[in-house]
């Protein structure tokens, strides 16, 4: 079993910076967990503490049940993959991949066999005699992964491994990483600032901010039930729109009209201790063109006019940027609106939109 447990783990640097504070996290054996958050939130420091590259200044770290706070990195039996690949330029692909096995003093035959197995999994067999300088970025990153997997470690730690690659290659490599992790079933902790990677790669996502964990959960759960405004705004692209709202006479009042409430949410919002002032979160895909909806949908929503600023076409997706309550808001899946009216006519005109507020939006924070 190679579960990884962080028990109130903290990191203070000598200059007083608290990079990570009281992080509690239980990563199950075989699980793929993503640490995500804005720059400086402490994700790399957390990963480096698991690797043993940074001292832990508070709390306890356990790998496979054993406290490893003071254990040297090489004795933790984990492999790290970095953004920079960190390949030896004067060695061939074969030698790079064999290196950790030679250090571990495995016999020549076993090394040869393990390298050729890893090369097969990563489709590197034809490149084994090349030097890193003669490889593409994606191939180099696959060699770096190959070097990590050859010695079948207890866990993989990956720090933004795909961020040096161009957008198209990143998408391809996401599939490679995902397949590899499933095939090997090795516990993996993966750091990224890219929320698409976070949403598509892992079993669970840990969202960090200011050194603290904001929420942990499967990607869809974070999207559907964000624990706070930060998570609500961080997950989803374009990001969630926020609108001030107040509960009055059992109704949710906003600057664009009253929002019809379902029974459950009404009970929650009108409970004695519920906050009276709220922020209402509306996902871009929960706006609809009022001229195209049926009566039932109309009854469930709130209709209002919103001037359209810009229409952005991403091929299959269209995003409409509106002005709502003096603020910019984004709406998605309004293809018909965008297609019918055309960008120029739409821009600056008042377009009638309805949001499915009651059914699906999130009241993110009081
Ligand atoms: P990024 O995505 O930019 O790499 P991150 O989330 O990985 O950011 P960390 O590198 O873990 O963030 O840094 C967390 C905080 O700790 C930051 O405020 C950073 O400035 C600080 N920090 C990192 N290393 C040191 C150090 N050696 N001494 C002092 N502060 C540090």
UniProtKB/TrEMBL annotation:
Q: Does the keyword ATP-binding apply?
A: yes
Which keywords annotate this record? ATP-binding, Cell membrane, Membrane, Nucleotide-binding, Translocase, Transport
Q: Which GO terms describe its molecular function?
A: ATP binding
Task: Indicate the segments forming the ABC transporter domain, all copies.
Answer: 4-235
Q: Indicate the segments annotated as coiled coil, or none if absent.
A: none
Return the Pfam families for the record.
ABC_tran, OB_MalK
| InterPro entries per record | AAA+_ATPase, ABC_transporter-like_ATP-bd, ABC_transporter-like_CS, ABC_transpr_MalK-like, ABC_transpr_MalK/UgpC-like, Mo/tungstate-bd_C_term_dom, NA-bd_OB-fold, OB_MalK-like
Q: Does the keyword DNA repair apply?
A: no
SUPFAM superfamilies from the xrefs?
A: MOP-like, P-loop containing nucleoside triphosphate hydrolases
The signal peptide, as residue positions, is: none
Tell me the domain of life.
Answer: Bacteria
Could you tell me which NCBIfam families the record lists for this protein? PRK11650.1 (NF008653)
Q: What is this protein called?
A: Sn-glycerol-3-phosphate ABC transporter ATP-binding protein UgpC
- What is this protein's gene name? ugpC
